[in-house]
């Protein structure tokens, strides 16, 4: 049974940073989950509604795998990505590094994984594979999904082959850290300013601080957007807090990332950004609570209050990012 030794789950909250943590610790680079998220310029916002969606989607991070690419570039890592339409080749792309004693990252649709309790299609899910036998694959996922888990080889094949929104063609990847990688402290400000610039200048009104302002106007109408408010609103609230976001739609991660940065760089603008994102994290949790309350009660007033809070969040996060964009 080919298995990579020394793999730990570490109680991670977000799938992509959970997998990245496994791959990087194997390379001797041990960073916190908020640091991985921040170095990957992972924070964002999107309000998305479309005909194929049962209900609008609030997202708090960049699109799947963009964080991995950003992180690899910042740390000077060799990121090897393989994709194919062939299931046979896809499995070969996995078995070769595992046989060489190296864990592999996989992007797949979590719906098909045996251990997943919530059967909802999500093609942007990321796991770390560290071993397999004749029947099962051994993975690291988030703490809420069990940490170190297993799934049948057939279910893994279906998850990797799935097609639909955010899916990839049997994507697998490895990371290698060079001996002389860039100093961590020198990569923090570029990561922060890149994230801030993207947040402040989104190409469409659904993204960044403009997207939060749009949500402030539309969330109060959500009772009329669904025929099943008792299902859809609490689910939206749950995804904001516990859907692999680390809490507060990834704002808790970014708050903690900025705190770590301030310890390393001791910059007043970082302290201000940290203070504002601490406030934002509390308000996002309040927003999720109000959305869930509206779904449970059928009363529109919590959604009206949520809209007001979202308007304040748009202002707070814009102010925070304006300050952070001037770092360096």
UniProtKB/TrEMBL annotation:
Per the UniProt record, one Pfam family is BtrH_N
Q: What range(s) does the Butirosin biosynthesis protein H N-terminal domain occupy?
A: 14-142
Record InterPro entries: BtrH_N, DUF4872
**Sequence ranges assigned to domain DUF4872 in this UniProt record:** 154-323
Name of the molecule in the record: Lantibiotic ABC transporter
Lineage, top ranks:
Bacteria, Bacillati, Actinomycetota, Actinomycetes, Kitasatosporales
